[in-house]
Description:
Blueprint: E1 2-8, E2 11-16, E3 28-37, H1 39-46, E4 62-69, E5 81-84, H2 94-97, E6 135-138, H3 141-144, E7 145-147, H4 154-158, H5 163-173, E8 181-185, H6 189-200, E9 205-210, H7 213-221, E10 225-228, H8 234-241, E11 247-252, H9 264-284, H10 299-311, E12 312-320, H11 333-338, E13 342-345, H12 350-362, E14 374-376, H13 381-389, E15 398-401
Parallel strand pairs: 8-9, 8-11, 9-10, 11-12, 12-13, 14-15
Antiparallel strand pairs: 1-2, 3-4, 3-6, 3-15, 4-5, 5-7
Helix pairs in contact: 5-6, 5-12, 8-10
Amino acid sequence: xxxxxxxxxxxxxxxxxxxxxxxxxxxxxxxxxxxxxxxxxxxxxxxxxxxxxxxxxxxxxxxxxxxxxxxxxxxxxxxxxxxxxxxxxxxxxxxxxxxxxxxxxxxxxxxxxxxxxxxxxxxxxxxxxxxxxxxxxxxxxxxxxxxxxxxxxxxxxxxxxxxxxxxxxxxxxxxxxxxxxxxxxxxxxxxxxxxxxxxxxxxxxxxxxxxxxxxxxxxxxxxxxxxxxxxxxxxxxxxxxxxxxxxxxxxxxxxxxxxxxxxxxxxxxxxxxxxxxxxxxxxxxxxxxxxxxxxxxxxxxxxxxxxxxxxxxxxxxxxxxxxxxxxxxxxxxxxxxxxxxxxxxxxxxxxxxxxxxxxxxxxxxxxxxxxxxxxxxxxxxxxxxxxxxxxxxxxxxxxxxxx
Length: 403
């Protein structure tokens, strides 16, 4: 079968690989009909998140048809149409039973302390071959698959594999409730769903910060109030819009590979912080080569987190769903402490939220397809990665049609 395979930083290929097989009684094999490219995939390709194993199939979002099931799989039969959850969970351990599926004690082969197990990730997450392929092995199939109702199309369902549950999780982490003013940092596809999620959790106003015009246009279609960080100081604008108080809740949907502001006050802030980081780096390692104009991950994420802390109201709450690698330490803890802020973060418990979000789609409350902007055949998967990585105008969510 064909699959998108990681061979090294910046090196992915569409390869011919062996078909997956059932290895454990709780496995299923799924014929993939839709997959997608996620920002997390870009972290892995860029090397921002380290530890990838050469030969790992990428991708953690998929919809498909059950091809075969192991002898211990109950409730599913070949021919069932399913959405595969991005994170893998056993469904039986104490964490799964409490709803903390992303912290399953059993799914990660590296042991209970290893944390989240997900498809197509680095060695610390398994590794488990991903879902940008014609077929995929799904471990713990009874928990890691959810049947798709006939009323929900594959294109709608693919957005429920990861991005919609993650955005909903962000709204829950931020403790969004009735009447809240919510700030969403990042207007990519997760940010777009964060807008939708915040509104359905009772938010009265949603303010969105990004630097790409097409994303801000899409946010305005949801009646969000938009801020272009290339033209304005987001913290100053949020405070002006809220009578000097700040947003009640913040959903940080940016992560480690934030785009560097090009102009305006935000760009000046980044330069100031980058200079400070460079001075600290040179003090710690005087013989190190100068960084020069290189854009190093850590500067922009620090900026996004600082915006979150500075733009939220005193005693407000922040939910972080943007991806950060182990070792990242650019959070302004002192300022957050002084303002009595609540900070929550983590990997999404997809299996917890997916069924109820399916109900929102069935009822017509949310149509996820509004956020699909590109559809690519498998042969174009590599070029789709390249375009998505360049943040070309209009690239919000890319679906790979692998049927």
